[in-house]
Amino acid sequence: MDRILITGASGFIGSFIVEEALKRNMEVWAAVRRSSSREWLQDERIHFIELNLSSEDDLKKQLQDHVFDYVVHAAGVTKCLRKEQFFKVNTEGTKHLVIALLALQMPLKKFIYLSSLSIFGAIREQQPYEAIRETDTPQPNTEYGKSKLAAEAILKGCSKPLPMEGLGVALPYVILRPTGVYGPREKDYFLMVKSIQSHSDFSVGFKRQDITFVYVKDVVQAVFLAMERGKSGRCYFLSDGQVYQSATFSNLLIRELGNPWCLRIKAPIWLLRIVTFFGEQVGRITGKISALNNDKYHILKQRNWRCDIQPAIDELGYQPEYQLERGVKETVAWYKEQGWI
Q1: What is the distance in angstroms between the CA of the first residue and the CA of the last residue of the chain?
Q2: Is 166 left (phi over 0), alpha (psi -120 to 50) or beta?
Q3: Which end of the chain is flanked by fewer CB atoms within 10 Å, N or C?
Q4: Do 108 and 93 touch, CB atoms closer than 8 A?
Q5: Most confident of 40-54, 150-164, 280-294
Q6: Pairing label, strands 210-211, 244-245
Q7: Cβ atoms 266, 250 nearer than 8 A
Q8: Other C-beta atoms lying within 10 Å of the C-beta of residue 97
């Protein structure tokens, strides 16, 4: 029985990875914080482990009595009050975990890191839009994207043994870079559902925007394919293979919500800049993270979210099972079943 450690196990994507690992009869260890909700981690077969990703020494102590075949590092933050927090969690947390695993000479078959398409930022923005490829130079325009790119650099630095640091083994890592991930349990896209249910649909910018999506279960599919077939040191983009216009997602949500009347509001980019600026300031004053922040401004402003998933198809055997129509239908049905809407 293979032993798998999943960080961020209580989160949106992490909880689905836990479920799939259980289906595959793996010995599942869910890394959680003491304060983490375990709402989606009720299976009695799950083993829990508390990991302090902010301390390399603590991690060594917490992991020293364990042996894992696989580690899936899904822990991270997408919204923070201050940019330093992105790097503390997404970058430093990854570094501490990796160094601890190497120092303990954990006999890993594969370390899977969930990064993001956001590390590339607003490149290839000239029409006609072209897909972002692995050979393109990342130019992250959000603090989240910068922190993820810095974490990737740490992994790449551990692709060979580091005897000077006492790390005599290399890290067999694979990096996955999903585009916008949606599905049951997700709360950011859910804000759009609530908005449409309240009869308003908000979009930004008058220039064409090409958007890509990937359903959470397809991300999970890619995680386990990467364990089996991923080449160490490789990076793979993930989407459903299609490109959508900005209104497509809204139209599908409207249909699944029973076609409520909806006022469509399209705002100019400069207005979004003002709203997100004040949203960020209010968040810092109140101590509550706002969905309308500086990172959100850059994300909504970006016009091209195309990415090339052919390497994932060719090398991993990745085949997206959920196009947007099917994924939205299943997601909204889940929201209804759970009483979210």
Answers
A1: 40
A2: left
A3: N
A4: no
A5: 40-54
A6: antiparallel
A7: no
A8: 25
